[in-house]
Amino acid sequence: EKGNHRHFMEKEIYEQPIVVAQTLGAYVDPLAETISLPPLPFDLAGVKRVQIVACGTALLAGQVATYWLESLARIPVQIENASEFRYRDPVYEPGGLALFISQSGETADTLAALRHAKAGGQHIAAVVNVASSTMAREADLLLPTHAGPEIGVASTKAFTCQLAVLAAFAIALGKAKGRVTPVEEARLVHLLTEIPAAMNEALKTEESIHALALPLSKARDILYIGRGPDYPMALEGALKLKEISYIHAEGYAAGELKHGPIALIDENVPVIVIAPSGPRFEKTVSNMQEVMARGGLVYLLSDAAGLAEHGAGTAATIEMPSVDPFISPLITAIPVQLLAYHVALAKGTDVDQPRNLAKSVTVE
Ligand code: M6R
């Protein structure tokens, strides 16, 4: 039931600190500061490459994970949406791990891709929320998320739980490949344990986001930009907004803007800039300034330090807690979800049951 919340989506956004903690609890030993995975039917150290396949928001969780997997395990990672994957006639090599991500565990394209990769001799891992689902049964290695039932069609808590599992898996793979030392593992695990409290902080952005919703709800197009893992977060922001508010939205890699999309910018186009402090901040800010120079309305999502440095001249700022870049996608997710939710409320759309969409897509 919805409890005190107006919609399942709002309830599920607010559940995230708890369900992410629950999910991490299945992978993390907080005292030993180590990761443990369920029993493995194959040797993780022998994994030579990872192919991620999923749809929609689950695909975007996978896209964030590509950064973690490549930086921690130093093996090649590819990602593709499930509806296209088989049409590439993918090349399967020994030692390949195919990793499927799905809330429902029933999405037709993802399931078909899983069976294709299995027939191709790949090890199959699946990050799945519904434990009794077909994908959960057919995977060699099931990596469950413990988000509980997700009712809202727009995925929120399943997404952040997927990120939590993928971050833990990346650490485990890095360790198995001899790339993550025990000291580094302890540092990363400690960061994971900080996520729930930082998520609670991030939920406090709701009031400032509510104040932006009415003007944003009048926009015809909204762009989201980010760099590195903030790029898939920009894609996720745009997907969430399109899905429930029906406003046309696009996510772009911040540096790609000047290769075309910047032609869209005028004083009517809001641009949500996802730029937490860290290694990519200055470059994203310079892309933000290119937007401002063309009259675009910039909404900057950053932490206190980032906003103090570059918040001036924007249409509005959203302050998220300051966290290590390793965990920032899980924290950024919250204001991104709240923004879509409040814009949809301002538009009066059916948040939990958006038009034309189904919770589980069981046709190809
Ligand atoms: O059940 P799955 O995770 O496999 O579903 C994948 C997509 O259909 C799903 O994430 C969809 O994009 C959501 N409605 C996004 O909010």
Automatic annotation (TrEMBL):
One of its GO terms (biological process) is carbohydrate metabolic process. The keyword Transferase applies. It comes from the Bacteria. The keyword Ribonucleoprotein does not apply. The active site is at 359 (for fru-6p isomerization activity). Its EC number is 2.6.1.16. It is found in: Cytoplasm. GO terms for molecular function: carbohydrate derivative binding; glutamine-fructose-6-phosphate transaminase (isomerizing) activity. Keywords: Aminotransferase, Cytoplasm, Glutamine amidotransferase, Repeat, Transferase. GO terms for cellular component: cytosol. It catalyses: D-fructose 6-phosphate + L-glutamine = D-glucosamine 6-phosphate + L-glutamate. Residues 40-179, 212-354 form the SIS domain. It is an enzyme of class 2 (transferase). Homodimer. Catalyzes the first step in hexosamine metabolism, converting fructose-6P into glucosamine-6P using glutamine as a nitrogen source. This is Glutamine--fructose-6-phosphate aminotransferase [isomerizing]. It comes from Sandarakinorhabdus glacialis. The chain holds residues 244 to 607 of 607 of the full protein.
